[in-house]
Amino acid sequence: MVLDLEKRTYLFVTGASRGIGQRMSIEVAAKLKPGSIIVLLARSEQGLLNTKESIEALGNNVKVYTYSTDLSLVTATQFRELLEKSLKGVKISDFERAFIIHNAGTVGDVSKSAVDVSDANVWQQYYYVNVFSVISLNCEFFRVFSGTPKVVVNITSKCGIEPFASMSFYCSGKAAREMYFRVLATEQALDNVVVLNYAPGAIDTEMTEQVQRESTNKELVGLFKKQRDNKTMLTPEQTTAKFLQVLQEQKFKTGDHVDYYDE
Ligand SMILES: NC(=O)c1ccc[n+]([C@@H]2O[C@H](COP(=O)([O-])OP(=O)(O)OC[C@H]3O[C@@H](n4cnc5c(N)ncnc54)[C@H](OP(=O)(O)O)[C@@H]3O)[C@@H](O)[C@H]2O)c1
């Protein structure tokens, strides 16, 4: 099956101010039909405006909204209001597809081991940004676009299926988040709902810079340093190109974990 992106689409991307989310927003936007709406969410207003500017420069007649929002504070009601605000004056039935990319994420405190943090509040804060807010937004998205064909992408990681020392926040959060989307895919096993868990590979962004700077995992730090020094670390452009190929070829089953390095 082929997933044709050239549709009148409502596209929602979290973490769209920089890194992978910024590149994916621009590249997916480039494929959409005129009349599409693109909603970009992150905290940095300037980063979001940069992404919006790049999309508008494509000249493909889509409308772009930016919402500077902190996912550590946002409620389901605020997500609902934000979705409704972006849809003011348009009919849901105008859209051939609703497409969401749950991309925003943080790596957590990589200077700590799995037995260092006993304060449940610290874990709760991490899980609020990386798991709870994602589920909350996804529920509201499904409520608003109940009758619309949907593509739901969770940006996951190899860390969601394999343990890495110093990354107990990140690995456990990615595993929980991915399992939520696998359950969703099982429940929504319909032709008009496609769920993809996409693992982008190790990418040259602020996230891997933080790991390289702060992690106690010497092996991982050494690997990232080597990749940076000899310029072999993947770029947001490279992983986005693969992401579009994976989507368009649609060889995966709904709910699958697909990695950049998969054939
Ligand atoms: N880089 C990698 O090697 C790699 C590998 C596997 C998976 N991933 C996943 O890819 C996704 C994007 O990562 P990246 O590498 O592009 O990282 P990044 O450059 O650090 O970007 C993270 C994005 O998330 C947003 N974000 C973080 N905290 C937020 C909050 N509290 N509220 C709202 N937005 C928030 C950031 O925007 P603001 O700071 O403006 O809020 C930014 O747009 C993440 O889910 C990550 O886990 C990355």
Automatic annotation (TrEMBL):
Its main location: cytoplasm. It is an enzyme of class 1 (oxidoreductase). InterPro entries: Biopterin_syn/organic_redct, NAD(P)-bd_dom_sf, SDR_fam, Sepiapterin_red. Its EC number is 1.1.1.153. It comes from the Eukaryota. The keyword Oxidoreductase applies. Keywords: Cytoplasm, NADP, Oxidoreductase. PANTHER family: SEPIAPTERIN REDUCTASE (PTHR44085). Belongs to the sepiapterin reductase family. This is Sepiapterin reductase.
